[in-house]
């Protein structure tokens, strides 16, 4: 196998990382991703493992009990597709929220993540829940549905 790490094995470690993510485990990303990993979600788009760790660390500063639940996955060559739920509670809010999404994760032959692109609807799952902006977006959505 010439030092190649099977994608299934690398993916299992990456899923475990996400599902066990805590402030003290963020550093595990150093073993799982290349230094210039491409990370993209509705709020970020950069190439940096250190910045990716900073995003996770900041998440724990802003949210209470955030956790990822990987519900399903598929693999195609060096790319994995994860369907997940992100459960969290904003500080001071009594009820938890859930964001449903998918991630496209690419691995190099050594089994390290080279790219992690999140796909989820920020308008419906985030912005529509904000007081004023949410009302406006829901009105626009209702108008467009007719």
Describe the 3D structure:
It is a single chain. Helix content is 34%, strand content 38%. The chain has 146 residues and is α+β, with helices and mostly antiparallel strands. It has one domain: Nuclear Transport Factor 2, Chain: A (Roll), CATH 3.10.450. A hairpin with a 4-residue loop joins strand 1 (33-40) and strand 2. The chain has a six-stranded mixed β-sheet with strand order 2-1-6-5-4-3. The chain has helices spanning 7-19, 29-32, 49-62, 122-125, 131-145; strands at 33-40, 45-47, 63-76, 79-90, 97-107, 113-119. The protein starts with 6 loop residues before the first helix and ends with a helix.
Key features?
Nuclear Transport Factor 2, Chain: A, alpha+beta, 146 residues, six-stranded mixed beta sheet, Nuclear transport factor 2 family protein, 34% helix, 6 strands, globular, NTF2-like_dom_sf, SnoaL-like, single chain
Seen as an oligomer or otherwise, the chain set is: single chain
Biggest sheet statistics: 6 strands, mixed
- In N-to-C order, the SSE pattern is HHEEHEEEEHH
CATH class: Alpha Beta
Radius of gyration: 17 Å
Which structural class should the secondary elements be placed in? alpha+beta
Instruction: Please give the domain count.
Output: 1
Task: Give the overall average pLDDT.
Answer: 86
Q: What's the end-to-end separation, in Å?
A: 57 Å
Strand content: 35-45%
Overall strand count: 6
Helical amount: 25-40%
What's the CATH architecture name? Roll
The coarse overall form would be: globular
The number of helical runs is 5
Task: Using the coordinates shown, work out and report the CATH topology.
Answer: Nuclear Transport Factor 2, Chain: A
List the uncertain runs. 133-138
**Strands ordered across the widest β-sheet:** 2-1-6-5-4-3
């Amino acid at each position: 196998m010439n030092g190649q790490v099977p994608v299934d094995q690398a993916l299992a470690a990456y899923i475990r990382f996400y599902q066990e993510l805590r402030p003290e485990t963020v550093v595990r990303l150093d073993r799982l991703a290349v230094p210039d990993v491409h990370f993209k979600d509705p709020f970020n788009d950069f190439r940096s493992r250190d910045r990716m760790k900073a995003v996770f660390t900041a998440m724990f500063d802003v949210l209470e009990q955030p956790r990822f639940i990987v519900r399903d996955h598929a693999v195609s060559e060096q790319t994995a597709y994860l369907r997940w739920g992100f459960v969290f509670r904003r500080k001071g809010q009594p009820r938890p929220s859930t964001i449903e999404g998918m991630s496209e994760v690419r691995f190099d032959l050594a089994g390290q993540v080279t790219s992690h692109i999140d796909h989820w609807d920020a308008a419906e799952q985030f912005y529509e829940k904000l007081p004023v902006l949410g009302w406006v977006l829901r009105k626009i959505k209702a108008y467009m549905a007719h």
